[in-house]
Amino acid sequence: MSMENNGIQAEFTVAADGRNCGEFLKSMGVSRRLISRLKRIECGIMLNGRQIRTCDAVSAGDVISLKAFDEDRLEPNPALNVPVVYEDGDVIVFDKPAGMPVHPSAKHHDDTLGNCFAAMFPELTFRPINRLDKDTSGLCAVAKSVFSAGKLGGNISKIYLAAAEGVPIPHETDKPCLKWYADGGEYVIDAPVAREQESVIKRVVRADGRSAVTRYTILNSIGTHSLVRVVPETGRTHQIRVHFSSVGHPLAGDDLYGGSLELCKAQALHCCETEFRSPSSGKVIHLYSNIRPDMAAIFDPK
Predict the structure, then answer these.
(1) Among the four 56, 58, 68, 127, which has the fewest Cβ within 10 Å?
(2) Which domain holds residue 225?
(3) Residues 62, 70, 90, 133: which is the catalytic one?
(4) Is 133 in the active site?
(5) Each residue of 131-158: pLDDT tens digit?
């Protein structure tokens, strides 16, 4: 796969007979949406140097070339400096600080991770794979092309560290739609998450919400706070924050969901591990990020 200033060029070699072009592209991880888009572009899908339809048959040894043009690039801000944990031809992984949004918004025009990415790669479109809330810190992967985004989307695991208030050990709750229990060495919060009525941002546990499951283990506890290792099985908006708040143990610094700002000024949630398979090489990439200082300080005995 190679990058060009006017778009992205990807080439695939067909390994065996028996499929049409569309079926082959789907097997290579190219999304239906992208295939549909490429069909509308002149020379968007080429077979051995000539334009091809997705219904046309392909044979072993054929070379299929794709070209998609990037649109809606963000304003670059070269003054932003976000640590890079990993980079290859398909993806770059940042260690995002708390307080930095991933995407621009009405209140954040040029101080986001997207603006940083645009300064580093002015020819590429910003495609974050795992989106973090503004005040959630840690590992955030960004695909360098629409093709690698299709491969990585839904195929990247995340582990978080969080500082929850109190000691979140399961007990009976008054929410019939909430299941909170121990499962071997882990605890599980299984509760549907929905948008709170009349709020654009806030989420709640509610019976008509989307299924959401959060697994966690308690790594350390000082009574007033517990350091937990969190593995979300689903990826609902604000899931970890909502789940811990719903069982009476909001995250430190998360005043939107009932957490105190006394020890943390931003929600104590940090993406500390991520794992994915490289779209090009197939190699498994496992990355780590240390807990941020304000979270660690909560458990400092001094």
Answers:
(1) 56
(2) 159-271
(3) 133
(4) yes
(5) 899 999 999 999 998 888 888 988 899 9
